[in-house]
Amino acid sequence: MKLNMGCGHAKVAGFINVDLYPACNPDLVCDLEVLPWPWPDNSIEVVKFNHCLEHMGQNSRVFLGIMKELYRICKDGAQIEINVPHPRHDDFINDPTHVRIITPELLTLFDREQNDMWQMTGAANSPLAHYLDVNFKIKSAVSILAEPYASKFDKGEISAEAAQSMARDLNNVIREIRIVILALKATSNRTVAA
């Protein structure tokens, strides 16, 4: 089973298209901030959050509940595709319904192996994978540059490192972040090439 969460009017064939608003005519009307979700344990192979996860979980307990629920419904190895606006882009800043910043760094808090490493080194990072009994591993994370940076990058006028450096200091350098995470449930430690 495959889920397209917060689909709006962008339905995907072969997926159960889920949205809060009946006006979108989704396959299933569901408030994803109300838990538990209506899917059985270990039943989902792929989940898409295309510009919707940043609209959920303004309250941190609700967001942590969403992550725990996502883990519950996913099969071992399930792929979760998350596309979000970069938190320093006007697309994020100017929408009052954007309540949660989503970054690869945030999602590493739900990675057991990373949590173990932080605990061994005495780092102050919150080991949420252990607190929530979840394990998500980042498979890939791609930053999509905004203009004029995308054109300059394509022409070789700026490097990926320079673009990332600018994005730390300036707004509107990166437009979108596309992240793929895997739900890992097997007891053995698995590593995923990023």
Structure commentary:
The model is unreliable at 188-194 (pLDDT under 50). The protein is globular, with a radius of gyration of 17 Å. The relative contact order is 0.16. It contains 7 helices and 7 strands; from the N terminus they run ββββαβααααβααβ. 27% of the residues lie in helices and 25% in strands. With 194 residues, the protein is α/β, with parallel strands linked by helices. It has helices at 60-73, 90-93, 104-107, 112-121, 128-132, 149-154, 160-169, and strands spanning 2-5, 16-19, 28-29, 44-50, 74-85, 136-145, 174-183.
Can you give keywords for this protein?
194 residues; seven-stranded mixed beta sheet; 7 helices; Rossmann fold; 25% strand
Topology:
Elements lengths: L1 E4 L10 E4 L8 E2 L14 E7 L9 H14 E12 L4 H4 L10 H4 L4 H10 L6 H5 L3 E10 L3 H6 L5 H10 L4 E10 L11
Parallel strand pairs: 1-2, 1-4, 2-3, 4-5
Antiparallel strand pairs: 5-7, 6-7
> How many whole angstroms does the radius of gyration measure?
17 Å
Instruction: Trace the largest sheet across and list its strands.
Output: 3-2-1-4-5-7-6
Helix content: 25-40%
Number of helices: 7
CATH fold topology: Rossmann fold
Query: Which structural class do you get from the secondary structure elements?
Result: alpha/beta
End-to-end separation in angstroms reads 25 Å
**Total count of domains:** 1
The helix-strand sequence is: EEEEHEHHHHEHHE
User: Tell me, what is the CATH class?
Assistant: Alpha Beta
